[in-house]
Amino acid sequence: MKDQILHLQGVSKNYAGKKALDQVSLSIGKGKIVGLLGTNGSGKSTLMKIAAGLIPYEGNATVLGKPAGLESKVEVAFMPDRPLTESWMRVYEAVKMQRDFYPDFDENKAGQMLEFMNLRDRDRVSTLSKGMQERLQLTLTLSRRARLYLLDEPIGGVDPVARTRILDAILEFYDEDSSIVISTHLVREIERIFDEVLFLKQGKVVLQDEVEQLRSKHGKSVEDLFKEVFAE
Is 21 or 155 the better-scoring residue by pLDDT? Predict the structure, then answer.
């Protein structure tokens, strides 16, 4: 299917005998912002790393038809839950590092995003607040001309002002020829930007659907469904 960006079929991953993912199958089409939702330990970060081509796995995973791994990395921009930068860097040095490392880095887009994020070139990373650091990480990731963007907990631990700015930036600078998968457990704060959601529980996909379909079927918000599915 030509509009399919990410496809997983029967994908599993074990760590020291414990299943992090168990026979996961899913497809994500072009032009989608998808919420990958689950509690801590549900397998979200493992799924992200497989889609980013960073770790081995069992089963079949493809990005634009290429097996997830070395061959597919050029199509994927991954924002992990740890910084892409070093604390000694200034903002302009972080941008230069990303530009030098990735041939698809769009310096003009980075400049627009830095302005939107209220980040200054000479600011040192070590002096940035948690929220401003997350804004910088998002800028470095979305400024690549990738087809699949993977954002692992992009609003975790940031204040409401920074959170709103980050979500607004995703909508403002999102390229509809690509798709974005956002891993989070902060459902209420972020569900407004999702086209689809995917619930991952104990390494298994327990629900995947379009947000509007879910709301019309169940008469509930994504957050309320999340609470039902993951209630202890």
Answer: 21
